[in-house]
Amino acid sequence: MSTTLPPQSSTLSEPTLTISVRSCSDSRSTGFVVRSPCCTVSTVSGQSRATEWNTPIGRVRLVGMVEGASFLLLLGVAMPLKYLADMPMAVRIAGMAHGVLFLLFCVLLIQAWTAVEWPLKRVLMVFFAALVPFGPFLIDRRLREEDALTKRSADSP
Which has fewest Cβ within 10 Å: 29, 90, 111, 148? Predict the structure, then answer.
């Protein structure tokens, strides 16, 4: 089943949203309730959110965002709890999660470096952005644009 939603006004050119729902082999439905449908939401570009993370740069973006959020959580919540409320366990938990995410980010960055053949300057820029609070969020737009360019060049003959 596929549904296309038209733009709200005819004077403005807004993107069209397409939603496709299909049954999975393991899905079960009772009456009108489907327990586990497979749903794909596509935008005008024809790319779903799920496929954005299927590229090396997309994986760096995803883990960078999660790692950046864990860094902010560590600095903004866990550290004050440790020093102001005498709760050192918050830093141990948030610090461990952040450390694992940062190592995963570094591994994925090396993978993207080799797969996309980035220059060393770009790899170092992304790496040092991950060391700064809000850095992964600031560099995400540039990575998203580069990912789109890489996909376009791979799709063209």
Answer: 29
